[in-house]
Amino acid sequence: MQLSFSLTLPTFSNFSKEKILAVETPPTAPTASDNNTTESKITNDNITLENNSTEHKHVVKAPKHSSRLKLNEDNTDWVSQEITTLFTCDGYGLLYSSLILMISIIVSCLAFRWFKQEQTSQGLFYLILVFMALGGVTLMYASHLMAFFIGVELLSIPFIGLIGYQYIQTHSLEAAVKYMILSTIASAFLLMGIAFYYAASGELTFSGLSYQLSTMTSQSPLLLMGVCLMLVGIGFKLSLVPFQLWLPDVYQGSPTIVALLLSTVGKVAIFCAIARLFLLAPIVNNETIRIILVFMAFFSILWGNLFAFIQSSLKRLLAYSSIAHFGYLFIALIAVQYQVLALETIGVYLIGYTLANITVLGVISLESHSNELRDHENEIDLSGLFWRRPILASAMGVGLLSLAGMPLTVGFIGRFLLILLGVTAELWWLMAAVVIGSALGLYFYARLVINLYLRPNCRDDQLVNNPLMNIKWQDFRLSEVLIAISALLIIICGVYPKWIFNLVTMAQYLST
Questions:
Q1: Contact at 8 Å (CB) between 152 and 139?
Q2: Ordered alpha helix ranges (H), 72-171
Q3: Which among 10, 69, 165, 327 has most CB atoms closer than 10 A?
Q4: Over the stretch 385-414, which tens digit does the pLDDT of each residue have?
Q5: Residue 265's closest CA among 360, 111, 383, 158?
Q6: What are the tens digits of pLDDT across the range 163-182?
Q7: What is the pTM of this model?
């Protein structure tokens, strides 16, 4: 006799996944009940139990609205697959790995223009960039803490070479050495936390951790210590308070294209991997851990916006702004019990943040060259940019307004979802910090936008009065096109956000 179980496991975003388990059992002697041809059916909502003379079936049916992901039904459906125990290939990893690869391509185009005046080949830069992208993709699909750690190291080590690559620039070597030392210390804390985690739970896979933590009757001190040590390492990589002091100096000392990588790939990859872990393993159910996360998010929001308020260097300003933005995003991890809304918030906010950084830092990169001692990152360098390069200045202004969370931009949609999630989770202190931080951010972002449109002291009246006449279409190449497309996407997603909602909803499936 064969026992056949058809079990549908519930997953996020109303997706379903079917697994068939067949168990062979030795034949048994027929009984009086086996000769009975009637069937007993017990139906309770979506559970049906059928008893026949020769077989027993236990069927758990999927909810009627779960129709987006089914096994062997349509070739176009997304099916989660485990690649050994280290990686899981699903829609979640596909979305963010595609985002990382697109950022890497854009940075390659910007780097080609930045190195234009160099006499020697810069192939080493692109090789290091490939390894950095490999680390980011590894993190996207990681479903095991060892794969997570390998991805973090593959991402962090190439950054040391990228930050100090153009060592003739001011503060470049200082920034590289500072990042190398602090990154090594953070990795040691992260690895020690993983060791304590394993000692307490006996598991390293994300799904195994989810099971062990959900079945524990009481949280062990060893597990709490492991999580705290992991938060130290993660806090450094995401530059959250109190592990954020290194970020402005590293931003200022590194080339602008590398600062773009640090603010996007370097943080998006780690945050998405942490989001996968937090959504599967109920880490924030512990009140101590939850309080620590709330304090990190609260002070990151206030610290980042307050210090960005007084900066004149755009790269330092964006460094402090990055601290605040990932403080905002930590609200989604704290409110992790609202799984679908948390994933949508993370997806929309990260896409908007990435597009805005491409427009702002991309324009600074195009205004700079690799043979100069520093990039054109000060406000005075970009003053009146609209009268020299109107399309780039407009794109940069759109990116700055999106970072400020202004309406009709995708940044506003992400900020609105974040507030909605925080109110749903009743995180009132964090909501107060978001309001204060948004007010401060609106001031210094608007100041930068106004600076782009200041009239220069120029005697050429035609140039001043007709900036569109200054457009040199022959110089408008692939890098400028990519920046303009990013600005258009910011506006389109802000005016009509339905398609970006559909995109992040399709990528909500996480394998358990």
A1: yes
A2: 91-114, 123-141, 145-163
A3: 327
A4: 888 888 888 999 999 999 998 999 999 999
A5: 158
A6: 988 887 778 888 899 999 99
A7: 0.80
